[in-house]
Amino acid sequence: MEDVDSRAFEKPLQLALAGNPNSGKTTLFNALTGLRQRIGNYPGVTVTTTTGSMFFDQKSAYITDLPGTYSLAASSLDEKVVHDYINGNLPHVSKPDVLVCVIDATHLSKNLFLASQLAEHHIPMVIALSFWDSASKHTHFELGLLTQRLGVPIVPINAAKGEGIAELKSAILDAHANSKTMTRILWDAKIQEVMDAFKKEVEQKGERLSDAEVQRYLFDSYVPSLHRVKIDPVELKKIVDFHRAKIRQGGFHPHTAEAVLHSHHLNPLLIGVVSSGKTRTRRAESIDKILTHRFWGFAAFVLFMYLIFQSVYSWSSPFMDGIDFVKGFLQGQASEALASFPQLQSLVTDGIIEGVGAFLIFLPQILILFFFISLLEETGYMARAAFLMDRLFSWSGLNGKSFVPLLSSFACAVPGILSTRTIEDQKSRIITIMIAPLMSCSARLPVYVLLIGALIEPRYGSFVAGLTLFAIHLLGVIVALPVALILRFFLKSKQSKPFLIEMPEYQIPNIRNVSSRMWNEAKEFIVRAGTIIFAITILVWAALYYPRPADLEEKVKQEMHASYIEEGGNGGEFFQALEDEESDISAALGQKIDSAYINQSYLSRFGKAVQPVFDLAGFDWRITVGILASFPAREVIVSTLGVIFSLGGEVDEGSHSLREAINHSVWTQGSKMGQPLFTIPVAFSIMVFFALCQQCGSTLAVIRSEISTKWAVWSFVYMTLLAWVGSVATYQFLNLFF
Amino acid sequence: MKPQCLSKLQKGEIARIVTMDQDAPVCQRLMNFGVLPDKQIRYIKPAPMGDPLEFEVEGRAFSVRKTDACRIKVLPINGL
To answer: What are phi and psi of B74, to 5 degrees?
Structure first.
């Protein structure tokens, strides 16, 4: 018992897992922690780290999987997060007690560079040699010699099989207990002199920097910003530049001195450690003879992408239908249970349940897409896809890795935008995110099907109808190109990561990595975007529900009664029919009342007020209100139109009654009164509006959580303006012919 | 023989890296990646659309864009 008590008060160990990309770091992380993981976000940083807990015989520990990097030199946010994390510069994170550096044993000498940089932090370290089974097959390692030279425990592991994990754990405790830090580089005298002088000068300004931080200031390609350093940035840059000039005078280049000198330091340490037998041929090269082949490479690529798109698009639909079914069932139950409290009933069914359903509906697509994305990354194919496609995208500021996110956006922009995390270059990532919502997603399809089915197919036949559907899908792609170019211009000043993709060996995917990736992505989506999607749904519900004047229902009943008599009906019969809830008259009255409530709701009042703006696009107030109501989720336009045209909210795009209503509706006010509302130009105008407009609260919520609020606002503003301009131009142009 | 552009190598040709433009961000990244002067580099092949190009240094393959590759000057090693 005593033992347990003393353990309870002991602070858990804080471990950090660092390593190159493709070094098997995540496999080790998952082997160490299982599913005890959570994702960490740091303010102002989009890079996420995953932290999990693990247990030793006597201790518990938290271990954080840092982004994979080749170096600590900050050329992107990934390296910055690794550096800030290790230096304890992130809020609420203390310096790790032990660093676990994962090194791919097949590329020992190159991977050691990162370890050597990490050694500059004086933190106890353990080296985990991954891919041990395949490396030791061809190469003999004198691990005892290397351990002696580096001064830290070195543990060979095969994380996927769980081999070496126990040894690694005891090595971690050993390194911690005996403060085993890795042998540091002996810097060239001239460089050491500059580092000391820089440190001293900064100290005189009242700031203390660690050796490792000094190196970042002097060696990185731009001046790093450490929040805790309070020196005026302009002055600091002057000091940095002065000392960098000294490095040049010493015969080194400040941005490459680190790589060169660490390599000089490491090479002698490796003499006699590695003796390879025959040179290995890279298995990847023979596979790539097909997979990056001029013809077969593209054929395979198209096949894989088709498979991914089909699965996100079609395989997800039974699950989505299932969620819809459960939602409908719960709404029905709640509606019955709360029948005597109409306001609460509407809040629960149309607000709360609808809102929860609004973000749960994305889960099937997100899970399926991330299943494939982690397969692509785990196997090593993602690098090949980027290699194949880069030429197609590079001129517009995107890169080869933009393809998968853009393709998935044709199913839904939400998983598409989430999947841009695979793009390391922040500039390409932002551009990809900003154009992704222009890809025509599946939620737009009902609108196209409704309008084409009601207006174009009956007049011009199915061939023209199909062509129209294709053209409207193409529109987003065509518009996306200039948008990308303009964005590239505006982001010119933003630092771009040079294109460099490692073409790793092909690997058999690790199921645990795939499933934990799917789970983590889904969890994060719900936490970060789900709440906002929910809030938007509630807000729009309120704007469509309120106000509720007490006399409205009576007024509608009387109006209906009056017109019933006018048409020669019998007043008594009318009221008798109303007694029967199943009668046509009751149903019609219900629909008229729903329609009347919406017509005087806050949202409709706003819609009528702004309708003149949409007059140029040929929209009357009903279309305008429908469009406004569908800003949180564009697919609701169909049911909203159903309610507005007094057909009830149960209509869908194939609904005969709605198509009839569209064909027969006329302008109810203004100069065009009595003329048909839905003409060909109006139909195209609406479709262009939907193709280009950012009518998706969920997408905005995801953009906000993936980049920032500012970019979410920009996305909304530019797409809405584009949609308006596009639909006005379409309407005015087509009006010349029809 | 004068050092030549890395992108001018023939498919499969092996060369020794002579200089890397140390002001170019791509070279700084490549050096962190373990591609350093004096190392042997092999040109594997171009992407199907001609760009980027795939290389190998000490058993590790990577791809860079053509314009970036020219920041590296190499001397082909003949007779291999």
So the answer is: -135, 160
Query: Does B34 sit within 8 Å of A499, measured CB to CB?
Result: no
Would you list the domain boundaries of chain B? 4-76
Which residues lie below 8 Å from residue A300, measured CB to CB, with a gap of 6+? A290, A291
SS3 A187: coil
β-sheet bridge partners, residue B42: B14, B56
Whole-number Å distance between alpha carbons of A181 and A121: 9
Q: Give A315's Cβ-side CA count (13 Å radius).
A: 15
As beta bridge partners, residue A696 has A633
Q: Are A217 and A224 in contact (CB under 8 A)?
A: yes
CA torsion sign for A366, A368, A374, A380 is: negative
pLDDT band at B80 (very low <50, low <70, confident <90, very high): very low
Dig out the tokens for A710 from the structure.
């500012």
Pairing outcome for strands A139-141 and A274-276:
antiparallel
Instruction: Give the closest of B34, B59, B65 to A499, CB-based.
Output: B65
Q: What is the pLDDT of residues A60-107, one digit of tens each?
A: 889 999 988 899 987 777 788 888 889 888 777 889 999 999 999 989
C-alpha distances (whole Å) from A129 to each of A107, A125, A737 are 10, 13, 72
How does DSSP classify residue A70? Answer: S
- Residues listed for chain A: 738
Q: The pTM is what?
A: 0.84
Which fold does the domain A2-177 belong to in CATH?
Rossmann fold (3.40.50)
Calculate how close chain A gets to B72, using CA atoms only, in Å: 14
- Nearest CA among A603, A599, A579 for reference residue A589: A579
What is the 8-class DSSP label of residue A616?
T
Contact A502 B36 (CB under 8 A): no
Residues of chain B neighbouring A263 (CB-CB closer than 8 A): 34, 36
Please state the φ and ψ torsions of residue A125, each to the nearest 5 degrees.
Answer: -135, 150
Considering only the beta carbons, identify the residue of A107, A295, A387 that sits closest to B60: A107
Give residue for tokens 């890079």: A47
| Cβ contacts of B22 on chain A, cutoff 8 Å | 253, 255-256
What are A113's two structure tokens?
């560079």
Torsion angle of the four alpha carbons B21, B25, B27, B28, in this order, in degrees rounded to the nearest 10: 110
In this complex, which of A70, A256, A388 lies closest to B48 when CB atoms are compared?
A388
The verdict on domain B4-76 having CATH code 2.30.42.10 is no
- CA of A35, closest CA in chain B: separation in Å? 32
Q: Which residues of B touch A403 (CB under 8 A)?
A: none
Residue A343's CB is within 10 A of a number of other CB atoms, namely 11
Q: Are A402 and A426 in contact (CB under 8 A)?
A: no
Spell out which residues of chain B touch residue A256, defining contact as CB-CB under 8 Å. 20, 22, 27-28, 31
Q: Which residues of A touch B26 (CB under 8 A)?
A: 498-500
Distance, in Å, from the CA atom of A480 to the CA atom of A483, rounded to the nearest integer, reads 5
Residue B38, chain A, CB below 8 Å: the answer is no
Six-digit token string for A242: 């002065």
Q: Do residues A316 and A365 lie in contact, with contact meaning Cβ atoms separated by under 8 Å?
A: yes
Look at A498 and B60 and tell me if their CB atoms are within 8 Å: no
Q: Chain A contacts of B23, Cβ < 8 Å?
A: 253, 255
Chain B, nearest residue to A266 by Cα: B34
Q: Which two tokens stand for residue B25?
A: 């961000």
- Quick: pLDDT tens for A17-75: 999 988 989 899 988 987 677 766 555 555 678 888 888 777 788 999 998 889 998 77
| Binary contact (B68, A498; C-beta < 8 A) | yes
> By three-state DSSP, how is residue A141 classified?
strand
Helices and strands in chain B: count of H runs, count of E runs:
2, 6
Beta-bridge partners for B19: B73
Residue of A279, A498, A503 with shortest CB distance to B29: A498
CA–CA dist A118, A601 (Å, integer): 62
